Amino acid sequence: MKKIDLPENVTADDVAAEAGVSRWTVNRAFKKAASISPATREKVMAAAQSLGYVPDLRAAALASDRSNLVALLVDDFANPHKLVMMERLTRALRSRGWDTLLVNTLDRDDAGSAMLNASQRRVDATILIGIQFDDEVLKAAHKARRFKKLIIFARISENPNTISIAVDDQAATREIAQYVMERGYKNPLYLAGPRTVSAHLLRKETFLEFWKNHTGHVPGSIGVDAYDPILASDIIRQTLTGYQGRERPDIIVCENDALALGTIDSIRHHLHLRVPEDIAVIGFDDVPQADSPNYRLTTYRQPLTAMANYLVDVLESADTSDMDRTFMGSLVVRESA
Q1: What's the pLDDT tens digit per position in 216-235?
Q2: Are 169 and 201 contacting, i.e. CB atoms less than 8 angstroms apart?
Q3: Which of 4, 53, 72, 145 is the most buried (most CB within 10 A)?
């Protein structure tokens, strides 16, 4: 086979000469929305592949007003739903020509510096999927004018300088509460996650209010500081140890699946009770583990694909006004409740 000697630094001019087109045409072939015939684009791509040419995205970004790069700030990795959200988001972004810079925010004190770090990378938007971002952090970020778009994903923020894309927590929780009531449960216990100042979930408040309005009494509730199955298991063991018969809740409604998985483990392995015969459990999110034979968790499925696709629509929109959007998911009934 004949050896092909390739230039050390292949340029768009080299590709243009190989394909028999202009440099301008080569540049357009690598732009997603550029007007160019399929045949010409295919010819340019074939020439680029044969020469080993890759466009310099940094130079292209400097020459335009958009880098097609977003920063994804994530915390709370004990929550398995975070990995699902990251997969859906990055899939939707990559399918439409966007790349991602992942930043792990270690704790609340690190959130501000993490956002500053992201802003220095010349990203087009910053996406927050975590629990560490309170009003103080968000206001500081807006005041610095470092972000073109600041998007809160999977939580509703009342901060006017952000864009919220989330499931309708209140409608979803009312559907869960209605299901619990129709199944005949009388003594629910609500297990909540951390209470954040801004962009926190509205599930606990909605469930307690619904139950009070329909039964006349407020159910018990407990909470943990992180969406961690181990913490959930510990708090359930501590709370229910020594409870007998009617004292025990007949169902535990959990703010998300991470807490529900830990709750089921504690009921079975610490309290030596049965799910759902002794205590039923409901979660929220429908993480992959929820369908495992070990859990078979009744839960509420968030429409993450639709939410992720809408997020990309927001990125590609020139209009940033009134972009907040809530979505409806669906209740998934399994054997845990």
Answers
A1: 999 999 999 989 999 999 99
A2: yes
A3: 72
What is the identity of the amino acid at 84?
A: V
Residue 321, SS3?
coil
What is the reported pLDDT for 13? Answer: 84
Nearest of 144, 138, 150 to residue 108 by alpha carbon: 138
Tokens at 261, concatenated:
């998985």
Q: How confident is the model at residue 175 (pLDDT cuts 50, 70, 90)?
A: very high
- Residue 114: partners with Cβ closer than 8 Å, 6 or more residues away: 73, 103, 104, 105, 106
Burial class (CB in 10 A: 0-12, 13-18, 19+), 245: exposed
Residues 6+ apart with CB under 8 A from 113: none
Q: To the nearest 10°, the Cα dihedral for 298, 302, 306, 311?
A: -160
Output the CA torsion 88→118→73→325 (10° steps).
-70
Residue 51: which residues within 8 A CB-CB, separation 6 or more? Answer: 6, 7, 10, 14, 15, 18
Let me know how many helices (H) and strands (E) the chain has, helices first.
12, 12
Asked whether the whole model's pTM tops 0.90, one would answer: no
Instruction: Pick the closest to residue 251 from 265, 237, 267, 235 (CA basis).
Output: 267
The order of strands in the sheet holding 220-223 is 220-223, 188-192, 251-254, 280-282
The verdict on whether omega for the bond into residue 55 sits within 30 degrees of 0, i.e. cis, is no
